[in-house]
Write the structure tokens for this entry.
Amino acid sequence: MPSLAGQDFVELTEDLSGSPLWNPDLAPTPLARRTWSTYHIAALWIGMSVVITTYTLASGLMQQGMTWWQAMATILLGNLIVLVPMVLNAHAGTKYGVSFPVLCRASFGVKGANVPALLRAFVACGWFGIQTWIGGLALHTLFTAAWPDWANIPGAIAIAFAIFWAVEVWIIVNGLEGIKKLEGWSAPLLLAGGALLLWWGVARGGGLGHILSESTRLQTAHRPFWQLFPAGLTANVGYWATLSLNIPDFTRYARSQRSQVMGQALGLPATMTAFAYIGVAVTSATIVVFGEAIWDPVALIARIGSAPVIIFGALVIMLAQLTTNMAANVVSPANDFSSLAPRRISYVLGGLITAVIGILMMPWKLYADASAYIFTWLVGYSSLMGAIGGILIADYWIVRRRNLALAELFKMNGIYSYGAGVNWRAIAVLVIAVLPVAPGFLNAATTPGGQVANPTLLDSLYTYAWFVTFALSFVLYLAFARGTRGRR
């Protein structure tokens, strides 16, 4: 039986190493390894938030027609909303030391947990590819600035992309502790790099007040705010809806519940808003200086500076991509793929699978257009993440009242087997919750830019995808709660 270690922790004492559901990476984290403080959790979020896709999320909203303050308000609200499920799902990781795919076994069954784990994993693979593509573009920009003839090499961008990908694979092989160290020292440097980019925008644009007011004036010709806000808010929630599911992968190493709550509260909304502010301010400057909104900072640094400035900017961008990709888009899918066959797939092999699938998902297409990036990619996958999140929170906080039988999560014929290893009620809830937004997603996916010209009711419902699927799955799961406690 597990033993209690204060109110925050439950530690596994039973030897389950013979279970087909167990391997060293999926095993509950022992107390001796729960060492992450508030600083480590906050630094993790700083490292994950200070990244080019945060910048482009803000700049992309402006490109679509939002003013700088509308984009900022949307981003802040979205991050405050997603912080709630983030903290709630993190609780089980800290208390029991379990990762996301193991936690899913309580609500979906020891075999059924592979469904949400794979859905989360494939989204992470897409993000891994996008971040790697941006890192490859930054490396290409650096090489071109240092050696101008580089741009004339056939397939130069593809070569830079492959080099950056190879560096990430090397980091994957070195494991999670390397990620912790990388996040700890790199976060301050990343913030400093963003501040320098802001300084350029203010200096070239004639002052902060001027560039913000001038960009607001120029943006008035675009679409009304309330037409953009629903999908923009959903995209911002969807941006971290992935991590709101697999946050136990990190908080399983936290020293206490206070560490995970304070670390996330301090690290996520503040950093996202601050770096997004840099994105809207610099994008406002590009409107004033160049007469157009340049939403991609990699393209911007290639246009604004001398070779030393471009090289420095590219280095900062590449570091940002590395820290975020390793933490946000490798840890989770590595654990998720490992859960499919714990005896055959280790954390490292799971990470390598992620790296390969990330290329196969053709990230250059996912990132090709700001509108499609926001309205199809971010909003689209948020529907899946919302449905899974509603089930996990309803099960852990309402149905089970934060009580799990830790050892049973690793038993094929335990209380979480639901007879055949799958809780079909949870699977049914997942499917039903996603159905209402599926038509809108199909319309968006087949429309250039992801914005339907004459939206129907279902198209409008899709713009609230995460909220719709989260609410439906939460309510439906509780309605079926009598059958979701497991076989006892």
Summary: Strands lie at 3-5, 9-11. The two ends are 16 Å apart (CA to CA). The chain has 21 helices and two strands.
